[in-house]
Specification:
The protein is mainly alpha-helical and 221 residues long. The protein contains 9 helices and no strands. The longest helix has 45 residues.
Length: 221
């Protein structure tokens, strides 16, 4: 387990650095084998979450995100509803506090995890169905967060529009359709509203830019 001193996180970071930068094939394979162990059981969950709390290493954050996806795919039924909510809220808070600063590929990975958890846990409780409200807070935080929120909403629509056959989603096709219909009824309209608001912002910004350019180009008398 990761210690409070961050030593375990530092080891995780070293393994990720080896995986992506080592010129030696055997070292990369060994690092990959050790990192795959983090997807083996829910007992490694706290270690992965600690990476988000303590690391600023892009390689480590990316591997933590992809490992979390793998762990959820293999161990979803072993997680309690409270644990599922805790993971999703931790990642949402991470996107709000640091999502605008991390590498684009890290943000993309985390957005996919949030969307996946939201779909799988949609009927666990009302908190999961508040995801569009949470995305709205992200949307209004800053221009950088706005782009991140739009990416999250896109991932949610894609996720709910996709029929899953993975081990993590043992629901029948009928149950998955019920989930998709619920998302449509509760979340799709406000998602479209946010998209329309973005288009209005861009159009207004474009008009202001064109006006300023025309003023600058006009001759003075």
């Amino acid at each position: 387990m990761l210690g409070d001193d961050g030593g375990g996180v530092a080891r995780f970071e070293r393994l990720c650095e080896v995986l992506y930068t080592s010129p030696t094939s055997s070292e990369r394979k060994d690092a990959e084998a050790q990192l795959l162990q983090f997807q083996a059981s829910t007992g490694r969950l706290a270690e992965l979450l600690a990476v988000f709390e303590k690391s600023h290493n892009s390689y480590a954050l990316l591997i933590a995100g992809t490992s979390l996806q793998g762990l959820l795919a293999a161990q979803w039924s072993a997680l309690s509803p409270d644990e599922r909510l805790e993971i999703r809220m931790l990642l949402m808070n991470y996107l709000l506090s640091r999502g605008a600063q991390v590498a684009d590929f890290v943000a993309a990975s985390l957005v996919k995890v949030v969307a996946r958890i939201t779909k799988l846990a949609w009927f666990d409780g009302a908190r999961h169905r508040e995801v569009v409200d949470e995305a709205s807070k992200l949307y209004n935080a800053s221009p950088e967060h706005c782009a991140l929120a739009l990416r999250l909403l896109t991932a949610l629509v894609d996720e709910f529009n996709t029929t899953s056959t993975t081990r993590s989603d043992a629901r029948s096709l009928t149950q998955q359709r019920k989930c998709a219909v619920s998302f449509r009824d509760l979340a799709l309209f406000p998602t479209v509203q946010i998209a329309q608001s973005t288009l209005r912002r861009l159009r207004t910004s474009g008009n202001h830019t064109d006006g300023a350019a025309a003023a600058a180009a006009s001759p003075t008398t």
